[in-house]
Amino acid sequence: MTLTDPASGIGIDALGGNKRRQQKEKTLSIVLMGAAAVSLLISFLIVFSLVFEAWTFIRGIELGFLWGDQWAPPFNEYDIKTPVVGSLVVTGIAMLVAIPVGLASAVYLSEYASSRFRKVVKPILEILAGIPSVVLGFFALRWVTPNIVQNINPDAPGFTLLAAGIGVGILTIPLIASVSEDALASVPDALREASAGLGAKKVTTTITIVIPAAISGLVAAFIIGISRAIGETMVVFLAAGGGGNQAQFALSPFESGTTMTAAMAASVAPSDRVSEGVALQSLFFLGLLLFIITLILNTVADRFVRRVRLVY
Question: Is 137 exposed, middle or buried (0-12, 13-18, 19+ CB in 10 A)?
């Protein structure tokens, strides 16, 4: 039944808009929904593959093999603490380098630099975030190791976790600085003006007003940096001695070692005997551990950010 306004002669059906346009919007909606479904399916298949292969690996070995002296899949040695502790050491060193430098850079760009200087430096900073990690890996190996690490400890070998951590930290600085600067810049100027009106100095306003107001964004920047550092491969592969198929357990940053990602990269080299069997499945086990650690980090960060987020 079609209702029509006697005065204008316009029916209710006309209020629905052009039917051709409605059909296009419906088609676009279906396409977008299909893309979202495909992405979810791919994610599910990746997680399922990791879990299935990791479970097969655990069932195929004695659990005692997971606690030994080295990580060497070609020789059936799967000391899990070797890559896990190596990842924690490298990430810890990287954050000791990246967070102070990155946060200080962000504070300067947001609170002290002129708008002209900021417009020039901010794009350069974002470009630096795209430097290939293999370049920083060679830099850490050929410059950081002899000029920093071996000056601190002359007995340090040519490959160390400390050199890898410094290299990963340098790689992470632009990322943390860029995201942190965005968080600081989003703080309303009214807060700065109110603090200045009460007689507070610039540094006092920055430390007691601006940084606490942007804490949710800063924490998000730090978590992104940590996730980037944990997932870094080539810098550790080149600078920490993780390029071989054997890695001894190392707790000292002045020793050679490996991380979860570097161990995975080293184990799939053509010369290694990990193309099949338990040795290959051990890589999926490491991938699952890396996925769980990253998921926990992001979950904790999300809960923290939701709790401390300030809406202006």
Answer: buried
